[in-house]
Write a structure and sequence with these properties.
five-stranded parallel β-sheet, globular, four-stranded parallel β-sheet, alpha/beta
């Protein structure tokens, strides 16, 4: 009798354990299913890019290239966590106040989950503090290269990242290219627009050049008004030619860059100065391009021959060329796809780690430390700054009617990021040891 009761008790106990376990398992599975639910509607991503104003000629196809980047992601990458991307694209006019207003609209009215934008440093500096303090949304700056961004304006960023290069990386590329072309350079003149970035990049270029070439003299440095209608650069051009430098490096861009090029060419600057490096001569749909001249690119593989091979360029770059008629020499034009690929990977990683649809804070936190293969090569995000593999200087070459870059001088990997244990000045002060 006791044996029978014991057997009955054991059967009941096992059954109870089984049912409890099963019910717990079902509950756990249900909880996981609930936690892991991904919205089915498209994910809204905002773009604030210049489509008019002074910057329009620097990157005249910004709006179109944003659409092409989204089209590529939806067609070839499956969107983000399986959600199709719905772009909301606004014209920032490269104006700081307009850009701030558009960011507010994208966050508060359009309810986007992330924003890509900001070509000029002035626009990036205007929105970054508000993103960190108020909007708290993953923000990928397409350019806005000033060193002030992460040193003084937002020294401890949480939501803001930069895809384009910083001014130190840019200046290292420029100095390296000039010394390759003219190793005996003794005198240099510099021209740049009169705002945060123009002063910053001019300062960094001079610091870095003097580390590599201490005996170089800067015989003339000027800063011209930025973005004025019908600019007249005649006085500056005359002064440059009177100083007779071995090298002139010009940082004028957008409609200013086109005006400078046309006026300098008419006044004979390009024939009287041994080496002229108009940094943005490869932009503006070739309006400033000439065969064999030095030019900067931030678009990497998207503009180097063979630009239509590999991942993702075999699908993306030909689409740009077909739609716009020009390759994306300027970085912002392909950084939009780079940014979307970063976001895709951040969302996927955050979802895998937590089992939940990522919050803006999760996505922002997960972005740091990611690496992707993008249209300008293998890129890593370190301390909120991309390694910008597309940053290089080369020579423009017309290949069957398309301007491409050849003989590239890229920035070495170990010089792409200012170490977090160094200030910018400390990092620059180590550069003279490279030759030793």
């Amino acid at each position: 009798m006791l044996v029978g009761r014991g057997k009955s008790f054991i059967v009941c106990l096992v059954s109870a354990v089984f049912l409890t376990g099963a019910m717990g398992g079902f509950a756990f599975a249900a909880a996981q299913a609930e936690k892991g639910k991904i919205p089915t509607e498209p994910i809204k991503i905002g773009f604030a890019v210049p489509m008019s104003g002074v910057a329009a000629s620097l990157s005249p196809n910004a709006g179109v290239n944003a659409e092409l980047a989204v089209e590529y992601m939806n067609k070839h990458e499956g969107g983000i966590l399986g959600r199709q991307i719905k772009p909301i694209i606004y014209d920032s006019k490269a104006n700081a106040q307009v850009t701030v207003e558009l960011f507010g609209k994208l966050v508060e009215s359009d309810k986007v989950e992330a924003i890509l934008g900001c070509l000029s440093s002035s626009t990036g500096l205007a929105v970054a503090p508000k993103v960190e303090a108020q909007w708290k949304i993953p923000t990928l700056l397409l350019e806005a290269t000033t060193m002030a961004m992460f040193t003084t304006v937002i020294p401890k960023p949480k939501y803001v990242y930069r895809i384009g290069p910083d001014d130190v990386m840019q200046s290292i590329a420029h100095v390296t290219a000039i010394l390759r072309e003219k190793p005996d350079v003794k005198t240099i003149a510099i021209g740049a627009p009169d705002y945060e970035w123009g002063h910053d990049v001019s300062k960094r270029f001079q610091q870095i050049m003097q580390k590599f070439k201490p005996d170089v003299k800067f015989v003339y440095t000027f800063f011209h008004p930025f973005g004025e209608a019908g600019p007249n650069f005649a006085a500056y051009i005359t002064n440059v030619m009177q100083q007779k430098p071995d090298v002139y490096i010009g940082y004028s861009w957008g409609s200013d860059g086109v005006a400078w090029h046309n006026q300098a060419e008419a006044m004979g600057l390009y024939t009287k100065i041994p080496l002229v490096f108009d940094v943005f001569s490869g932009t503006a749909k070739g309006e400033m391009a000439r065969e064999g001249v030095l030019a900067e690119t931030r678009a990497g593989n998207g503009t180097f021959p063979p630009y239509a091979l590999g991942y993702p360029n075999s699908k993306f770059t030909p689409a740009i060329l077909e739609k716009t008629g020009v390759l994306p020499t300027y970085g912002m034009d392909i950084h939009m796809l780079t940014g979307l690929l970063y976001l895709k990977k951040a969302y996927e990683k955050a979802y895998d780690l937590t089992g939940q649809y990522p919050t803006p804070e999760m996505v922002a936190k997960t972005l740091d430390g990611l690496s992707i293969i993008g249209p300008d090569g293998i890129s890593s995000m370190i301390n909120h700054q991309s390694t910008s593999p597309g940053m290089a200087v080369g020579r423009l070459h017309n290949e069957k009617g398309t301007w491409v870059m050849k003989d590239m001088v890229p920035v070495p990997d170990y010089l792409k990021i200012v170490p977090p244990w160094m200030t910018v000045e400390e990092f620059i002060n180590t550069l003279d040891k490279l030759d030793k």
